[in-house]
């Protein structure tokens, strides 16, 4: 992950981020009907690439530090950064996170959701619901004067209260004309610790929550991160801005 001095965005720059974020959210909505048994993750990737270009944008993941595809598709025990593949066919009962980042006029809109393929198991359904709510609690902790640690504490407290664990190895990140920049935003931690939030900060909140242990390992492909115990992992992601009084979610479809 690159790091640099944290920048504060002007309201004009935040509107550019919102345009990118809106397209990202609309792309997820566009892809959702493809999430069905029998569809390959490469088919979803290729439709994402086609649609993104048709909307005058391009896909930040493609070629990013050598990543070979346009989106990330992370199924079941894959935590994040799964690579779309023609041989990987969605099956009834799977959960799949689709993570998209179109670049619109230089600005990145970074968002992801976990979808059910057909009918989920009870534990898969609970994990996905708890992961979404944990992201929302993290977002609700954001306001000027709050601390980065308040976000992770809210997420961790909620996820662990349901018996799940928080991935440590991947964090939220500042995002603007650069894909990954300061600050780092852990999804675990202590309230009152870390950098103070200020109006104009823009970053992602993207908790990865595991059914079992939080430990991750990366496969030989150099990208695919999986749970070491083979149990499920879910994730949701929004890009947000700190406002004068609270938080503004930039990755909403309208
Ligand atoms: N979109 C991912 C994130 O939320 C990053 C994907 S980088 C890639 O930060 F190279 F794997 F595509
Ligand atoms: Co993302
Ligand atoms: Co991100």
UniProtKB/TrEMBL annotation:
Free-text function comment from the UniProt entry: Removes the N-terminal methionine from nascent proteins. The N-terminal methionine is often cleaved when the second residue in the primary sequence is small and uncharged (Met-Ala-, Cys, Gly, Pro, Ser, Thr, or Val). Requires deformylation of the N(alpha)-formylated initiator methionine before it can be hydrolyzed.
Lineage of source species: Bacteria, Bacillati, Cyanobacteriota, Cyanophyceae, Oscillatoriophycideae
Gene name in the database record: map
Transmembrane region(s): none
Keywords: Aminopeptidase, Hydrolase, Metal-binding, Protease
Cofactor, how bound (note): Binds 2 divalent metal cations per subunit. Has a high-affinity and a low affinity metal-binding site. The true nature of the physiological cofactor is under debate. The enzyme is active with cobalt, zinc, manganese or divalent iron ions. Most likely, methionine aminopeptidases function as mononuclear Fe(2+)-metalloproteases under physiological conditions, and the catalytically relevant metal-binding site has been assigned to the histidine-containing high-affinity site.
Peptidase M24 domain residues: 15-244
Alphabetized InterPro entries for the sequence: Creatinase/aminopeptidase-like, Pept_M24, Pept_M24_MAP, Pept_M24A_MAP1
Membership in a protein family: Belongs to the peptidase M24A family. Methionine aminopeptidase type 1 subfamily.
Annotated source species: Lyngbya aestuarii BL J
GO BP field: proteolysis
Name of a matching Pfam family: Peptidase_M24
UniProt-annotated binding residues for a divalent metal cation 1: 99, 110, 237
Gene Ontology CC: cytosol
Binding site for a divalent metal cation 2: 110, 173, 206, 237
Annotated protein name in UniProt: Methionine aminopeptidase
Binding site for substrate: 81, 180
Superkingdom field: Bacteria
Molecular function as annotated in GO: initiator methionyl aminopeptidase activity; metal ion binding; metalloaminopeptidase activity
Catalytic activity line of the entry: Release of N-terminal amino acids, preferentially methionine, from peptides and arylamides
HAMAP family registered for this protein in UniProt: MetAP_1
Known cofactor(s): Co(2+); Zn(2+); Mn(2+); Fe(2+)
EC number(s) per entry: 3.4.11.18
Subunit record text: Monomer.
């Amino acid at each position: 992950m690159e790091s640099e001095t944290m920048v504060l965005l002007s309201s004009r720059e935040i509107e550019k981020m919102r345009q990118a974020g809106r397209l990202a959210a609309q792309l997820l909505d566009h892809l959702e009907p493809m999430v069905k048994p029998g569809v390959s993750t490469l088919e979803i990737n290729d439709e994402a690439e086609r649609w993104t270009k048709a909307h005058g944008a391009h896909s930040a993941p493609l070629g990013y530090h050598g990543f070979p595809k346009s989106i990330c598709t992370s199924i079941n025990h894959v935590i994040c950064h799964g690579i779309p593949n023609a041989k990987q066919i969605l099956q009834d009962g799977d959960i799949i996170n689709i993570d998209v980042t179109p670049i619109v006029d230089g600005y990145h809109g970074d968002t992801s959701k976990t979808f059910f393929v057909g009918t989920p198991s009870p534990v898969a359904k609970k994990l996905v619901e708890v992961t979404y709510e944990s992201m929302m609690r993290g977002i609700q902790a954001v306001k000027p004067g709050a601390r980065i640690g308040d976000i992770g504490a809210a997420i961790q407290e909620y996820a662990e209260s349901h018996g799940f664990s928080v991935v440590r190895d991947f964090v939220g990140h500042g995002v603007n004309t650069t894909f990954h920049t300061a600050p780092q935003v852990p999804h675990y931690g202590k309230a009152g610790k870390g950098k103070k939030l200020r109006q104009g900060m823009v970053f992602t909140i993207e908790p990865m929550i595991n059914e079992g242990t939080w430990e991750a390992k990366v496969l030989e492909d150099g990208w695919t991160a999986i749970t070491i115990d083979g149990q499920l992992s879910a994730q949701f992601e929004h890009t947000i801005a700190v406002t004068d009084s609270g938080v503004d979610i930039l990755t909403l479809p309208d």
